Amino acid sequence: LHTPMYFFLRVLSFLDISTASVVVPKMLVNFLAGDRSISYTGCITQLFSVVVLAATEWYLLAAMAYDRYVAICNPLRYATIMNSRVCRSLVLLSCCSGSIVSVVQTAWVFTLPFCEPKQINYFFCDIPPLIMLSCTDTSLYEKQIIMTTVLVIFTPFCLILVSYACILSSILRISSAEGRHKTFSTCSSHLIVVTLYCGSGTLIYLQPKASYYQDAKKVLALIYTTVVPTLNPLIYSLRNKEVKEVLIRMM
């Protein structure tokens, strides 16, 4: 399992565990203990952590798509192109990009004046419910969120689509049906995660202040922050022959 694909999967697992750890414990306290308050500092910390982890994961998914493109379309040069230095650089670039996005978004949203009572109709501190508390005109900030959504979600998504268009072209040139199935199975898990992540994230942030489907946003946020991070280990392990073989040998 010491290949670039599994290196990226280890990083993805760390991001998923971290995202769930930021959201789920406080959510359980809210539900079970009845204490639904959060400090100002705690809200800032939670928002910053969620945004940096989500943005980093998006850029990492684009890097994983590029890894699959090189593995399938340039198999003879795969080890040379996707060496350990390149893999670490892609992960570092993803983390730095996610951190910059999170710092800008968190700093901007907490410069807004908030009205009393300071209560959000949500289960964690996120950008859409926070800007709905603002006492000032947020139209400029909403436009900035849409631009950030395009930068963080649609740009990596377009790169992923281009990678998979090239991959699909290579798969169709494979003569045997078994070879096509084996090659496509290595990419299907990644496509499932990208689809779930893109759909829920886009619907949440493209209309940040739309209150007419607030309950639907909470469901989408639950998918984005809890369901997808929980499903990722199952999707990538139970659908992966090498991982299953290692698990069987360990047991």
From TrEMBL:
Q: Where are the transmembrane segments?
A: 7-24, 44-66, 86-110, 145-172, 184-207, 219-238
GO CC entries: plasma membrane
GO MF assignments: G protein-coupled receptor activity; olfactory receptor activity
Q: What is its main location?
A: membrane
Indicate the segments forming the G-protein coupled receptors family 1 profile domain, all copies. 1-236
Instruction: Identify the domain of life.
Output: Eukaryota
Topology versus the membrane? Multi-pass membrane protein
Q: Name one Pfam family in it.
A: 7tm_4
Which InterPro entries does the annotation name? GPCR_Rhodpsn (IPR000276), GPCR_Rhodpsn_7TM (IPR017452), Olfact_rcpt (IPR000725)
Q: Any signal peptide, and if so, which residues?
A: none
Q: Which UniProt keywords apply?
A: Cell membrane, G-protein coupled receptor, Membrane, Olfaction, Receptor, Sensory transduction, Transducer, Transmembrane, Transmembrane helix
Q: Where in the cell is it found?
A: Cell membrane
Quote the PANTHER family the UniProt record gives: OLFACTORY RECEPTOR
Family to which this protein belongs:
Belongs to the G-protein coupled receptor 1 family.
Q: What is this protein called?
A: Olfactory receptor
Biological source species:
Cuculus canorus (Common cuckoo)
Q: What does UniProt list as this organism's lineage?
A: Eukaryota, Metazoa, Chordata, Craniata, Vertebrata
